[in-house]
Design goal:
About 30% of the residues lie in helices and about 15% in strands. By secondary structure, the chain is an alpha/beta fold. A five-stranded mixed β-sheet has the order 1-2-3-4-5, sandwiched between helices.
Length: about 150
């Protein structure tokens, strides 16, 4: 602990300054060893829970030792690290396994058509010889619809 050089001018009622617990600035217990596998950030939409669910899927998949990389709101080229395709869907979460297989997770927003969301990824993967599966999490979409119904009750 050292004396605070600006004293009371720093809006601190004491003459000594404290910093936060610096042990949390790093990962001293190795609990987040998987986080370096995740690239990108969750897409923020008008649907409550969309970013939360995307982050949840990304982190849960990144913990799998058979997973090489997880992307969030990035295209297939970033997920696979190569490819000649110039365009394509940008899945909410892309998972690349060490064996080369891919898992795509889309988190359905309130305006998404689940069939179209699945189909655009399946077609793209088939057209580009990408092996894997596509899953859609509709929990955020369902929650948003439930909120609207609750607003109507009253």
């Amino acid at each position: 602990m050292t004396h605070d050089p600006i004293g009371l001018a720093g809006n601190n009622p004491t003459l000594y300054g404290y910093v936060g617990d610096t042990n949390w600035w790093i990962d001293p217990f190795g609990l987040f060893w998987w986080s370096d596998k995740i690239i990108g950030n969750a897409q923020t939409t008008g649907t409550k829970g969309h970013a939360f669910l995307s982050n949840l899927h990304a982190n849960l998949n990144a913990m799998n030792p058979n997973v090489e990389k997880v992307t969030m709101d990035l295209g297939y080229k970033r997920l696979l690290g190569n490819g000649t395709f110039k365009w394509g869907p940008r899945p909410d979460v892309g998972v690349l396994y060490k064996n080369g297989n891919v898992k795509i997770i889309e988190v359905a927003s309130k305006t998404d058509d689940i069939g179209k969301l699945t189909n655009k990824n399946v077609v793209f993967m088939n057209d580009n010889n990408i092996t894997g599966k596509v899953k859609v999490n509709s929990m955020a979409k369902r929650f948003d619809g439930f909120k609207k119904k609750l607003r109507g009750c009253g």
